[in-house]
Amino acid sequence: MHDIWIEKYRPRKLDGIVGQEFIINRLKAYAKTKNVPHLIFAGPAGTGKTASAIALAREVFGGEFWGQNFHELNASDERGIGIIRGKIKDFARTAPLEKTSFKIIFLDEADSLTADAQAALRRTIERYAHNCRFILSVNYSSKIIEPIQSRCAVFRFKPIKAEDIEKYVHMIALKEKLEITPNGLETLIFIAKGDMRKAINVLQIGASLNKKITAKLLHETSFTARSEDVKTLINTALGGNFMAARNQLYNLLIKHGLSGEDIIRQIQQIIFDLTIPDKNKVQLIEKTGETEFRLIRGKNEHIQLESLLAQIVLMGKLLKDFSSNKT
To answer: Which residue, 74, 133, 221, 321, is most buried by CB atoms nearer than 10 A?
Structure first.
């Protein structure tokens, strides 16, 4: 039986959480005193929010009994008031077990709760604070109503640094007997973008095909294009060759199985590496943002991406004319 690596290598203790030193030190202090306030963990996916909540519960309640006093729910599954009046209230109202003074409810993706559900949650937090602590995991703390925020200590998780991802990946590679090439490691960090969970998942998918992890393998298994290919696409368009750029675009879409939104995100990353004036980089960011908005609204991705390429071609022509006039 093959384990899922994000569970197999999920840290069991707070000391194992990487990249969030300030937060972990605060959580250790709570664990030591066995006194945990209501908490909000805010930040991008894969930065250690769930792992920190579970590790905190393990250290507060003890390794043997922590699961009896810790309840994890995902608010994106049930966004309405029913989840508050049902599962959360039922768990919060019962007494903690094994001589502990409180239980912990971990509510993942709490920022997806409706306004009515959040209002009900606020009342539940107030009513059962004597025997239950709440940890809310969110991408954006601003989506949580102020009455809840004011009752919680807010911790902001940052994207994991490249060097921390590198260390953790090397640890997994050693235990799984993998060979990671330098360009493979660089590609893995590029694909992860600060998301440790994504890095581990992509590594496991690659390892299921080959014990030697290369950049080519990771691009093929993670459905991402090489940054060089995306940069070539933009430079071709800036050079004025629309048809060639269009062919390169469809090669990326078909060969790598990317969606329009995937292409847009990679273009946005590459823009800052282009050798064009900053003013034009800003214009490109604006145009890619508009294109992404239309794609999210369900517009035809081929038409929108071709339109973006056409705008880049026109920008390249203006830059070329401007350069010619200067000389």
So the answer is: 133
The domain boundary, picked from 222, 242, 271, lies at 222
Residue 33 vs residue 221, higher pLDDT = 33
Report the relative pairing of strands 39-42 and 132-138 from DSSP bridges.
Answer: parallel
The alpha carbon torsion through 193, 195, 200, 206 (nearest 10 deg) reads: -30
Cα–Cα dist 188/201, whole Å? 10
**Which residue segment(s) compose the domain that 45 sits in?**
5-156
Whether residue 9 is found in the same domain as residue 149: yes
pLDDT tens string 218-234: 988 887 777 788 889 99
pTM: 0.80
The enclosing domain of 176 has a CATH number of 1.10.8.60
